[in-house]
Amino acid sequence: MRYTGRPLEDTGAPRRAVPPGPGRRLVNDALRQRAWQIAEKLAEADGGEARLTVIPDGYRVELLLTSPHGPDDQQAVLKALALGDRWGHKYSPPARNNGTARETVWSEVHARAAQDPAGPVGG
């Protein structure tokens, strides 16, 4: 499995969603660990590169779908996406990409959701 870039350094993100104090680093570590788990599962399911980025209150994992997908691959991608707090799909038609359709799936983990017992919300 491959990832784009290198593991993210602890920059203190998410700053706004987690109050200052000793638990802050634990929350950041837990969020990062969840995000890497999602990236790993997505890369395994598709064979592509999962991209992990920092967002204002957590992390976002994106995967450009590259291989033809059978039902097993699709289920593995959906299971990986469901590990996040929000998830979604972007489609760009062939007319915009020199004749090639592009599909990207994404999943986010948020500090707010980690503190909210209501559970994840689909994007």
Q: Can you tell me about this structure?
A:
The chain contains 3 helices and 5 strands; from the N terminus they run E-H-E-E-H-E-E-H. A 5-stranded mixed sheet has the order 1-2-3-5-4. The longest helix has 24 residues. The chain is globular, with a radius of gyration of 15 Å.
Give the total of beta strands: 5
Helix content: 25-40%
Shape: globular
Runs with pLDDT <50, length 5+?
A: 1-21
Report the biggest beta sheet as strand number plus sense, adding barrel if it closes: 5 strands, mixed
Report the end-to-end length measured between terminal Cα atoms. 26 Å
Question: In sequence order, what are the helices and strands, one letter per element?
Answer: EHEEHEEH
* Tally of alpha and pi helices: 3
Class derived from helix and strand content:
alpha+beta
Please give the order of strands in the largest beta sheet.
1-2-3-5-4
Average pLDDT: 76
The value of Rg in angstroms is 15 Å
Oligomer: single chain
Percent range for β-strand residues: 25-35%
